[in-house]
Each structure stands twice: as structure tokens, then as C-alpha cells.
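Exercise: predict the fold of this chain.
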Amino acid sequence: MIKVTVTERLIQFDEGLIGFYDCKSFLLIEREDIAPFLWLQSTERADVGFLVIDPALVVHDYRAIIPNREWDSLGLDSSSGLVLVTCSVGSKNAASTGNLQAPILVNYQTNAGKQIILTETGLTSRHPLI
């Protein structure tokens, strides 16, 4: 039997996530067997969970496109905190996409998070992962 290491962190979203405003509390789950992806699971609704990834693995210097005001709102600067994007896995690897238009920002010090919408970047909600 293969042992899988699992790490969990509870993240609070005061405004919920886009389309899931009733879900304010999520577990961010890191598992070796799905790396480099993580799982973001609502603690309030078992049917709400998202596969997420660090967008820097897809777009170089992704953090730089996030406005400073968004970092400031979580008590962060652009060099700290965590950025994630939700993913949709296709039947073939080439069909898998990430929502680079609506990243999730997380302050690991306070365990607070928020999802923002980036406009005027040219990034889409269905950006190819590979």
C-alpha cells in the first residue's frame, strides 16, 4: 500500500467564491498523488470542491498582473501569499484549462482568501494548462 501525505489548511472567504457565495469556509488540501494540483473543498457543502493550481506554472510572472490594491486588501504584497486558479480537466491533457481570469488569493498568515476578477489582461477563464 502506498502512503499518501495529505496537508490541510482552513481558509475563510468573507465573500465566498464566484457562483458559491454561500460557501465561506474551505479546506485547501495538498496531496502528493495530485501534485502540482491542490484541492479546495467547501466545509459547508460536500458537493462544492475545486481542483486548483498555482498559475505561475502556466503563465510566467502571473503575480505581476494582479493589482496592488487586491494584495493590500488581504494585508499582503505581490511577493507574499498564495495565488491559485480553478481548473477544468479535459478528457485529454490538451483539453485541460485554468481560470486565469478569476484567481484566488490567500493570506497564509491569517488564513483569509478572496477571489478576484481580472479585467483588461487578455487572460481567459479557459486558458490551456499545457
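Check your answer against the key: The two ends are 31 Å apart (CA to CA).
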